[in-house]
Structures are given as structure tokens and as C-alpha cells.
Amino acid sequence: MSKIILTGDRPTGRLHVGHYVGSLRRRVELQNSGEFDKIFIMIADAQALTDNADNPEKIRQNVIEVALDYLSVGLDPAKSNLFIQSQISELTELTFFYMNLVTVSRLQRNPTVKAEIQMRNFEASIPVGFFTYPISQASDITAFKATTVPVGEDQLPMLEQTKEIVRKFNSVYGETLVEPEILLPDNEACLRLPGTDGKAKMSKSLGNCIYLSDTEEDVRTKVMSMYTDPDHIKITDPGKLEGNTVFTYLDAFSKPEHFAEFLPDYNNLDELKEHYQRGGLGDVKVKKFLNNVLQDELAPIRARRAEFEKDIPEVYNILKKGSDVAREAAAETLAEVKRAMKINYFEDSALIEEQSRKYSK
Ligand code: TRP
């Protein structure tokens, strides 16, 4: 069986370092591993509209931001199809058919949807489109026969729901759809990178994000004001690692080479942590190191972004070409789905003959 990747992001803002360690970095590695037959990376504008119906301009602006973020981290259009969800009408058709296989109570139990409803104060007035987006996400994944879906942990319930839809479809209509596997980051810090203020989640509204497109100066300022251990007041005080954002970021970003290059007094992160816990290591020194580590990772991303920003029409062209390829793949699956569901009347000569025989008696 071919190995196929499908994943994507809602274009509701610029992508940040949480997206990067949670998924983007992995996608680029997978892309360059050569292990996959096809890779589809989707800008989920239709999904973004399910809770931004009154703000289409925001989505439209962020489509290009996300595309630039994708290209700048090293997703390569020669290897990965970058496309825009709303341009593939086959996806909405699949969603309509899958809706028959999912109950309202099952959607209500989806933990991600539940949390989002609370966060948006939607309780009494949930748009139907928003409520059903897990079904549309199942269409996104199955339309491309994806075997592998690299995403953050918050998407786990979506993958569960997709698998259920696949099993249900295949059991009712015959083996047609492919069951996907989720691919989560293997490092705890990458699974849930906190905001710079130590809050559990990076979010634009909390103003605690480091964006991939931030300038060198922005990144430095954000790192130097990061949340650490509030009880670590004097340098000689012993420090805590638990909940210490600077160390969580080092867990996610630092490599042994960084020590040789920027902090040669220590061989590795364990030694640095040990000194911090013992006392005698100040926050500023650790923050400066983290800044170097982050700048090292972000500088090439920033440089690539600057190149792509010079030719925006070409970026749209990449998305258009990717959408054409995606549409073709999704159309193939949709045809198979319609065949399995017995709604392929005009291509089914056996059906026409059978009906003729019935009426010629
Ligand atoms: N729900 C994802 C997000 O919030 C975006 C998305 C839409 C997606 N369809 C997908 C991710 C299919 C993976 C697979 O960012």
C-alpha cells in the first residue's frame, strides 16, 4: 500500500514555534525522508470559516501567511502538494455523505469540539458547520487515502472520529476508505509547548507566542521576558525546572551542537539543568542561550521567507498547482465512494441492463 501524508492548519493567524515543534518540523523531515509516495499539506480555510463566518477577510489574509510559513520552514512544492481546502469541492461532497454515518451525540462527545465550544462561548448558538467540522476533517483525510497524519495532540479526537467513520463506511458499503494513523511528536516538550508566559497554550489573544515570522529583535525581547521559576530570585538560589518555560523550550529546541557553539561550559542540557537546580546559575544566562538556540533555528526560516515574499504571485501559483493535483486525487476517491454507495447511476451499465430486463418482462 502506498504511504500518503495529509495534514494541515487553519489559516486564522501566523504560525508560531508551537506549530513548528508540534508538527511543521516533523513534516519537513518526513518530506525529505523520501519514504512517502505522496504528501498533501492543506490550508484549511473552509474549516477556519466554520467559526469565522463573519470574518472572511481574516481568513483570506492568513491563507498567504500560512503558505509563506510553510514554504519558509522548508516544505518544498516539488515534494509536497500545498493546497487550499475550499478549492476542492469534492471534500464537501464527501462530508455530506459521511454525515449519515455519525450521530449528533457522538459529535457532542468530541473533546476538542467540546473545549472549543466553551472557549468561544458558543454553548447556545453553535453554528452547524462548526459542530460538524470533525466530519469534514474525516473527508480531508480520507479523500487522499492518507495513511499518516502528522499533527499536534489536540487533533487526536479528530483522528479517532475519522477512524470510526472509515470503519463504519467500509462495513456498510464495502472496503473503500483507508484508516489513517496519527503521528504525534515524540518529545514531551514538543507535544505541548507553552506560551512565553508559562500558560499552557500559545494563543494569539494571550499575546504569548513567538511567531516563525518574528524579527530577530522580537524573538530576543520575548525570550528575555519569558516566565521561569518565580522563586529563583538570587543567582545562588536553587531553581526549579518544573513549569519553567525557558527549560521547556530548551527541551524542545536545543541540540548538543548548540552547547559547543554557544555555551561551551556545559556539555549538554542535563548538565545545565543540574547546575540550575543546584543554584548558582542565573536566568539571564539561560535565556541568552535559549535566544541563541532559537535564532539559530529561526534564521534560515526567516531568510527563506524573505525570498518567497519577493514573489507573492508565485506563491499563489504554487497553491493553485497544488490544488489542481489535490482535486484530481480527491475526485478519484469520491468516484469510488459513489460507486460503493450505489449512486453512480450513469456509469453503471449493469444497473441499466438490469432495470431494462425488469421492465421488458
Ligand atoms: N483541525 C486542524 C487545525 O485546527 C486543521 C485541519 C483540517 C487538519 N483538516 C485537517 C489537520 C486534516 C489534519 C488533517 O489546525
In short:
With 361 residues, the protein is mainly alpha-helical.
Structure explained in plain terms:
With 361 residues, this protein is mainly alpha-helical. It has 17 helices and 5 strands. Strands 1-2-3 form a 3-stranded parallel β-sheet. Helix 9 links the parallel strand 4 and strand 5. Helix 3 packs across helix 15, helix 4 runs parallel beside helix 16 and helix 11 packs antiparallel against helix 15. The chain is elongated. It binds tryptophan (TRP). The site of tryptophan (TRP) has 13 residues, from strand 1 and helix 8.
Give the tags.
binds tryptophan; 57% helix; mainly alpha; 17 helices; 361 residues
N-to-C span: 46 Å
Helix content: 55-70%
Give the spatial strand order of the biggest sheet.
1-2-3
Which ligands appear in the coordinates?
Answer: tryptophan
Tell me the structural class.
mainly alpha
Question: Beta-sheet strand percentage?
Answer: 5-15%
One letter per element, helices H and strands E, the order comes to: EHEHHEHHHHHEHEHHHHHHHH
Work out the radius of gyration.
24 Å
Number of strands: 5
Report the uncertain regions. Answer: none
Gross morphology is elongated
Tell me the number of helical segments per DSSP (H or I, 4 or more residues long).
17
- Looking at how many chains there are and whether they match, the oligomeric state comes to single chain
Biggest beta sheet attributes: 3 strands, parallel
Q: What do the pLDDT scores average to?
A: 94
